[in-house]
Amino acid sequence: MNNGHKVLVVEDESIIALSIQEKLMSQGYEVPAIASTGEMAVELYKKYQPHVILMDVVLAGLMDGIEASREIRKNSNVPIVFCTAYSDEQTMERVMAVSLSDFILKPISESELDTKLQHVLNIK
Prior knowledge:
The chain is an alpha/beta fold. About 45% of the residues lie in helices and about 15% in strands.
């Protein structure tokens, strides 16, 4: 079990966000909040100080997931796992430039999600 590691979910599609939250909670993770915009992600990160962030790349609002990650990384080295349905070269270059911890392509499987989070959190 994952000892209640806190995961901030950043996803602007509510059905996907709730599905991810359900998968995480069934694996023993705590999901203190779900952010739907980059701006909200930055604020909720400050409020909850999660152990890891699961960040969608494309978000509604002025700040996408990559910009939100840059902002969060100014003051923290929290692991960020990017989630994206876009695997084109330009998107992947932007993702890699943020010194991310890992990324996962959508649709997200429960086992792949757990494997990625265990890896970035160094859970044995």
